[in-house]
Specification:
The chain has a 4-stranded mixed sheet, with helices on one face. The protein has 205 residues and is of the alpha+beta class. The longest helix is centred in the middle third of the chain and has 26 residues. The chain has 9 helices and 4 strands. The protein is globular, with a radius of gyration of 18 Å. The chain starts with a strand and ends with a helix. Helix 1 links the parallel strand 1 and strand 2.
Length: 205
């Protein structure tokens, strides 16, 4: 099997990829890079020209962006059961919520954490809430909470790579940056997922 190399930092979004690799139970090498000059060296820029982590090498393939890496790994090792079967409603849910986390949830969380305040109207005169992809932090979190009230996991009854992504993101937004207050549904979800053996192994390395 082609060697898998994860380039990451222990305080980066790459922690989600590290967790998923432990869930998959496959051999991989982790290369931990310090923020700053180490990520701007020519050898790493040849892998990710943005000089950011995470990045994944798998043989001749290079994948960047957390959601893309998680999806690539789950799909490449589909026999591990961390992505729903193709052509099912559950697979559709997987794509829907992976992009929801990478788009609206990521943007809303970042805006809240950095204190960004949008004006009431855009330069075109349209309401900013309609222009923003996430609408508002409250709308984004309400949408996510409503979904988790109805399902044990992102894709229903099956734990998948989407849960790795969501749990990592929620833990960052609620427990680390405190970008938004905890909600009971999110707390229950995190308490179940963050104690998985693979997550504990990833945290110990």
């Amino acid at each position: 099997m082609a060697e898998i190399i994860l380039y990451s930092n222990k305080l980066s979004r790459g922690r989600a990829v590290h967790w998923l690799l432990e869930e998959l139970g496959i051999a991989y090498q982790a290369v931990w890079l310090d923020f700053g000059p180490a990520m701007k060296k020519a050898d790493y820029l040849a892998i990710n020209p943005m000089g950011k982590v995470p990045a994944l090498q798998h043989g001749g393939a290079v994948v960047t962006e957390t959601a893309a890496i998680l999806t690539y790994l789950a799909d490449t090792f589909a026999d591990k059961g961390l992505i729903p079967a193709a052509g099912t409603p559950e697979r559709a849910a997987f794509y829907r919520w992976m992009f929801f986390i990478a788009g609206p949830l990521e943007a809303a969380t970042t805006a809240e954490f950095l204190g960004w305040q949008a004006p009431e109207k855009t330069p075109l005169g349209t309401p900013c809430q309609a222009f923003l992809g996430f609408g508002s932090l409250t709308l984004t979190l309400d949408t996510l909470e409503s979904h988790l009230r109805q399902h044990a996991y992102v894709c229903g009854d099956q734990f998948t790579a989407a849960d790795v992504y969501l749990a990592t993101h929620l833990a960052f937004g609620i427990r680390y940056t405190k970008a938004y207050p905890p909600r009971a549904v999110f707390d229950d979800y995190l308490n179940r997922l963050l104690h998985r053996p693979a997550k504990l192994r990833a945290d110990a390395l």
